[in-house]
Amino acid sequence: MSSSTRVLGFILLSLLGGLLAGMPAPARAQWTVTGVDVPDLAAFDQQMQQLMTTRNTPSGAIAVAWQGRLVLARGYSWNPGPDDIVTQPDSLFRIASCSKPITSTLVNRLIQDGHLAPDDTIGQYVDLTPRPGTTADPRLATVTVRNLLEMLGGFGDPATLGYDPVFRDTAVAQGLGIALPVSHADVIRYQSGVALVAAPGTTYHYSNYGYKLLGRVIEAASGQSYERYAQRMLNRIGVWNLRLARARREERAPGEVAYRSGGQGPSVIDATGVLRPWEYGGSINQDTMDAYGGWVASAPELLRWMTNLDAPQAPNAILDQASLDRMFALPQNYPLPYTPGSYYYASGWAVRDYGAQGRTTFHAGSLPSTASYVVRYRNGFEIVILLNRRNENNPDDTSNAMDAAVWAAYGQVTRWPSHDLFAQVLPTILRDGFD
Predict the structure, then answer these.
(1) Is the pLDDT reported for residue 20 higher than 90?
(2) Whole-angstrom Cα distance, residue 433 to residue 233?
C-alpha cells in the first residue's frame, strides 16, 4: 500500500469516526420508574417490571393501600415510543370495565339518597321504545335496576348472542337508517327490539349493555349527565382528574398515556369508513362507553375512591354501611346456602365474602391497548394496576398475569410502611357537600 493510499484511508476513517460520533447511540431498552421508592414494597416494582417487560408494555402504574393509607404509588415506562410519556404515579389511563364498580357506587348513592329504588324498572327512567318494524320483548318492561347491577337483565353476552350489543355501531346505524356515529339513545332504540335471552333476574350474563342502561338511569335520576354527577360525587373525596375517555388520538387528556393495539377497523366515530386503530375509533367508539368502560383515571385517585368505601362513617363517605351491604350482597339468582369465600358477581363487583373475616372485592378491565385491575382484599390491602397494553389475541391472559403479579408481590411483603402518601400524590382539597 502506498503512503498516499494510507493517508487517504486514514482521512476516510477519521471522517467516518466523526460522523458516527455525531449520530445518536443505537436505541436500547429503557426502564424508568417514577414515584417514591419504598424498599419494603420492592416486590411490587419487581413484579411490575417483569409484567411489563415480558409483554412489551410501554406504560404502567400502580397504587397500593394498607389499612386506608397510600403506601406505594409508582409509574413505570418500558421502551417508550414517540407518542408515549414518561409515566408518573398519577398519569391517566383508560380503565375499561373497572368503570363498572364506579357506576355501581353512583347508583347505590342515588338509592341511598332516595332518588332510586333497587326494584324500580328501568322503563321508569329510560325510553325503551324499539326501532320501527320490531317489537319489544314483553319481559323488557320487568327489568329492574337491581337486575342491571347484578348482570341479570336477560340481555345475553357475546357467548350467547354471538356479539356484544355495545360494539355493533355499524349494525345499529344501518338498522336505524342513520349515519355513524351512533348515540346511547340509538343503541338502546335498536337493542330494545331484540328479544331477551333469559327471564330477568334468573341468569347471569356479563352485560356491557346493562351498564350502558345504568348510565342513562343515573342521568334521569340525578338530572345531570353521567359524567357530571360522577365528578361531583368524587370531587367531594378528593378525586379531581377522573374524566371520560375520548375516541380520537388528539383528544387524549393532559398526562394521559398513549395506546397502540396494533389492530385496525373501519371507523365508527364518523361516516368515512376509513381504517382507524381499534383504540382510536376503529370498530369501537370510546366516546360512548361511559358507564360500562369509559373512565380515564390515575391509580392513586382510584385508590382514594376505593379506600373511601372502607369508611362508611366518615363525614365525606360516599356510601353508608347499608349501601355497602347492598352493593356487595348476593345476587338475586344465587342458589343458597352460600359457602363463605365462594365467588359471585354482585352489583358491579366480583366478590368473595368470608363473613366475619371480611369481603374481598375486585374487578378487571380490558379493551384494545388497555388493561386494568382493582382489588380490595379483606385484610385492608388494596391495589390498582393500570397498563396501556394487553394481549390482543388473548385478553384474559393479561388479566390473569396482573392477578398473578399482585399476589406474588403481596406474598413477599414482611412489613407494611407506616407512611401515607395520599397528601403527597393527590390534591388535599376535600368537600363535605356538593358545589
Answers:
(1) no
(2) 9
